[in-house]
Write a structure and sequence with these properties.
Lysine methyltransferase, methyltransferase, single chain, Methyltransf_16, 3-stranded antiparallel beta sheet, alpha/beta, 7-stranded mixed beta sheet, SAM-dependent_MTases_sf, about 280 residues, Rossmann fold
Length: about 280
């Protein structure tokens, strides 16, 4: 595994690093912005080569950051697509081994945290034929459901299913409602507000604590020095490793990093700390 990086980086404004996701050459087999007007919904098409299907995602920029695509999401989508095309070269293979083909194949059960537009969760269902639950705050759910419904044909064609559910970080009751029996938990660009570090870690502990059968895969583009605080806290409760590092985009010094979190044995001191958050 690659080394987990914790050194301070220069602060980068996250509001300037949202994914544009636009191709103007008219190639239908590339990511393409289908409709974009200031203050209006934006429709984008994301081509998944491994299944020869295009996913359509609606963004609502005027509604806030949860309604827009961030760079780490497309990194995870690319990794899922590449895994479907050639698992032998995929950094996700050790985590997704349960999705191997065969007559006794059992679909993976996947949970996505902070799903936003739902692109990652929908792509996971399509590429893996997985049973996916996508989650976010209650006010994000209607657009999330819209995007799931918009891609029903691709989901059906590839044997995947997606369920939408509200999940507030730090709320044990919300975790109880969706359950804990997941093979893999996914997230992208969820570490950006420091006041959410403890609630996110508490939710992860409820899902991973003491469990050896569930992995958390998180794609993250570092923007602030304070991001280090999240990883320092996370390593007290989880084993944290780097699975993959993206090359920096043009004009940037850093790229998206994909981390693997695995639960350690239950620590009462952490449970007490998390409950005080």
């Amino acid at each position: 595994m690659l080394e987990v990086h914790e050194e301070d980086e220069e602060d980068i404004n996250p509001f300037t690093m949202l994914l544009a996701g636009e191709d103007e050459d008219g190639d239908p087999k590339r990511n393409t912005r289908l409709h974009a007007s200031p203050g209006k919904p934006q429709l984008e098409q994301h081509y998944i080569r491994s299944v020869d299907a295009a996913l359509v995602i609606r963004q609502l920029p005027s509604e806030g950051l949860s309604f827009q695509l961030w760079p780490a999401a497309t990194t995870l989508v690319t990794l899922l697509d590449d895994h479907r095309r050639d698992p032998s070269k995929s950094p996700l293979s050790p985590i997704l081994s349960a999705s191997s083909d065969g007559p006794d194949r059992v679909p993976l059960s996947i949970l996505e945290l902070g799903s936003g537009t739902g692109l990652v969760g929908i792509a996971a269902a399509v590429t893996l034929g997985a049973i996916v639950t996508v989650t976010d705050l209650p006010h994000v759910i209607p657009n999330l459901q819209f995007n799931v419904d918009a891609n029903s044909a691709a989901l059906t064609a590839n044997g995947g299913t997606v369920t939408v559910a509200p999940l507030r970080w730090g709320e044990a009751g919300d975790v109880e409602l969706i359950g804990r029996e997941f093979d893999v938990i996914l997230a992208s660009d969820v570490v950006y507000h420091d006041h959410l570090y403890e609630p996110l870690l508490q939710t992860l502990y409820l899902l991973l604590g003491g469990r050896e059968t569930t992995s958390f895969v998180m794609a993250h583009l570092r923007r602030w020095k304070k991001d280090s605080a999240f990883f320092k806290k996370a390593k007290k409760a989880f084993n944290v490793e780097v699975l993959y590092e993206d090359s920096p985009s043009e004009g940037s010094r850093i790229g998206v990093v994909v981390y693997l979190f695995a639960g350690k044995k239950i620590r009462k001191s952490y449970v007490v700390s998390a409950n005080k958050a």
